[in-house]
Design goal:
It comes from Cohnella phaseoli. The protein is an alpha/beta fold and 244 residues long. It is built from six helices and 14 strands. The strands form two sheets. The protein has a seven-stranded mixed sheet with strand order 6-5-4-3-2-1-14. The protein has a seven-stranded mixed sheet with strand order 7-8-9-10-11-12-13. The model has no long low-confidence stretch (mean pLDDT 98). Bound molecules: zinc ion (ZN) (2 copies).
Length: 244
């Protein structure tokens, strides 16, 4: 399984970068987890849009979905000029289906997903759990045919279901929106310490902190998470690659 961080910022992208987007090549499929602001442009450094098989949307906040509609237009144009023959499969929380604004069903096929259920994309298996967030949001677990596992948290506050989903995951990409000193300021997001606790309780093989804040000394997030989690831990960055 090859994982590429396309964007790692919470809320809005830093200059020339992107908010949430993670390209996973697994089981013969190229799967994009979230498609936030800036992702569509940066994605093309790593994956031709003709080759993208599927997008999984954790929830409908703009920093996770803003570029999905531009991606639909890209698919439309590529199909019109014959550069792409198959539509893009978009997997979205059943609770969000009515909120989505895709306009071309011949270009984008939307598939509802639910917490506690599994689906397959190519030979990759996907499972989902319900997060704690202002709006419905799913965490995603991908399992390769070789049995390697990635869990991506999406946006969440402290959440037992995420710990369960992340049990023994080879890689946990977990949001870390706040510093520990900000604990309790905003529900629906994790402090670095909480992210570290979740990684520790899940027994994750390695942990990547993401959905990063635009202020402060971000290495402090690693320090705070490492008080709880003793495995390898790093900050996500644009174009980061992880192979498992
Ligand atoms: Zn977000
Ligand atoms: Zn959100």
């Amino acid at each position: 399984m090859d994982i590429t961080v396309i964007g790692c910022w919470g809320a809005y992208p830093e200059k020339n970068e992107a908010t949430s987007g993670y390209l996973v090549e697994c089981g013969g499929a190229k799967i994009l987890l979230d498609c936030g602001s800036g992702v569509l442009s940066r994605l093309q450094n790593h994956c031709a849009l003709e080759e993208l098989d599927a997008v999984v949307l954790t929830h409908t906040h703009a920093d996770h979905i803003a570029d999905a509609y531009s991606l639909e237009f890209a698919i439309l144009v590529l199909m019109q000029i014959g550069e792409r023959t198959k539509p893009l499969d978009v997997y979205a929380n059943e609770a969000d289906i009515g909120k989505l604004a895709f306009e071309y069903p011949n270009c984008v096929r939307v598939h509802p997903i639910r917490a506690g259920e599994a689906t397959t994309i190519g030979d990759a298996r996907l499972e989902f759990s319900e997060n704690v967030h202002e709006i419905p949001c799913l965490a995603v677990k991908l399992t390769s045919p070789e049995g390697k596992t990635l869990v991506y948290s999406g946006d969440t506050g402290y959440c037992e279901a995420l710990i369960e989903l992340s049990r023994s995951a080879d890689v946990l990409i977990v949001e870390s929106s706040f510093y520990d000193i900000q604990a309790g300021r905003m529900k629906g997001h994790l402090t670095a310490g909480e992210a570290g606790k979740i990684a520790a309780l899940a027994g994750a093989g390695q942990t990547i902190l993401t959905h990063l804040p635009h202020y402060g000394e971000r290495n402090q997030l690693v320090t705070e998470a490492s008080r709880h989690y003793k495995g390898p831990i790093r900050l996500a960055y644009c174009d980061m690659k992880i192979n498992i």
